[in-house]
Amino acid sequence: MMPQRSDRLAAWWRTFAVQGSWNYRTLVGPGIAYGMLPLLRRIHAGDPVGLRDSVERNMRSFNGHPYLCAMAVGALARLEYDRVEVETVDRFRTALRGPLGTLGDRVVWAEWRPFCLLVAAVLFGLGISPVAAAAAFLILYNAGHLYLRAWAFVRGWEAGLDVGRILHESWLDRAAGKLGPANMLLLGAAAVIAGRVLVRQAQYGPVPWALLAGGVLFGVLAFRWPRRGGRLAVGLLLSIPVVWLLAEAGLN
Amino acid sequence: MELSDLALTPGIWLALVVAGGLLGLDAVSWPQIMISRPLVSATVGGAVLGNAGAGFIVGLILEIDAMRHPPLGAARYPDTGPAGLVAGAGFAAAGGSGTGALVTALISGWTMGWIGALSVYARRRLNEHLLSPVEDLAARPKRLERRHRLAMGLDFARGCILVAAFLIPVAAMTRLAAAGPAQPRVLGYAMAAILLSVAGSAGASARVTAFGIKGWPLLLAGAGVTGLVMAVAT
Lengths: 252, 234
Known about the structure:
The structure holds 2 protein chains of 2 kinds.
Chain A: H1 5-14, H2 29-43, H3 48-59, H4 69-81, H5 86-125, H6 130-159, H7 163-169, H8 172-201, H9 209-224, H10 226-251
Helix pairs in contact in A: 1-2, 2-3, 2-4, 4-5, 4-6, 5-6, 5-8, 9-10
Chain B: H1 10-28, H2 38-48, H3 52-66, H4 80-93, H5 99-130, H6 134-139, H7 141-177, H8 184-210, H9 216-233
Helix pairs in contact in B: 1-4, 1-7, 2-3, 2-4, 3-4, 3-8, 4-5, 4-7, 5-7
């Protein structure tokens, strides 16, 4: 039976919880089955064996970016509705994992989220209140988030087996390429804003040129060797209480 | 020191514990609208204690560090929701000023984030047992739905427990540290170390978002232009 609009809405809503039972054995597989259930119940209405087999198939190991998993939920349900052969569905499912994971991670986690966070930081630097800056991040980020989830689900349901082409021709990769340089600029700006806030907060006075130059050099070196640079940055923070305690001990 | 000294009434404590549950849930399980980012969670923590600005400062610095840990593939990353909330609330409880309080809040947020990451790992291992055997759950889809929701409920509880365990100790430590460091040389070292730490975190995070492009000139350009604008404006 063809799923109704309410079933599709229910399935889309459930995609927000697609990682709710993420585990190391089947990854997001149970979440995919959970998301598909409103559709599968309609498709296999009156056929408990068909429903059981379908849920079992879709609970198997699967991974992908959580927002783009909405596309998997839509497309896999479409294949169930179209009664596509099980072997084809299995191959399709395997083939879908890579692109949904890589593309989503690149577009959302590595580009869109930092972009929105950094815009909020820069807005704060321009003088808007902290609460407004945090709200600006949430509004901007979730405008993209909700659009992506809805687009992915609808296109998945419409395209079925053809989602590979949809992903290949989509705007997602191009968008990520454009945000990269913007993020570089914004991150530099955000670091300076954070530094200025800190200096003001501590009433530290003018920052010595040597410290500024050291900051620039350390930033560039950390860019070149991010793992070591990041660890050293944390180490510097952790060294403060040690130096403090040693100085206090020496004083007494 | 009493709870009232920390501006933590039982009602505020409970509100923050529940908020911690929601923030813990948001990071992975539901609905991933990113209220769990430290920029937001620390601002919320500060705002609940009447000083959103203090929370935002802590959140911004934790955010610059957290950006270098995107959840790509099977990578581990700090659980920044409850951690940011506690760090932001802790700094606000200390009046939102003082280098010692700021350093304590930042280190608490960072440490708690990685302890949270361990709890996420443990929960995921537990989910393996909750969501098996597959055949049994497939035969009874309602049970699958219940187990899935139970896993989400456990994630909520995980966030609540983290905040309940850390909030008062962190707020108390931050408050105690607010007066220091008294020696100018130590204060100078602390400020320099924080500024260098932010610069290093920004560089490392930039590389992650750059995905290998040679972007450091852009990073410096962003920093340089902003620095110039600020210098001219003041």
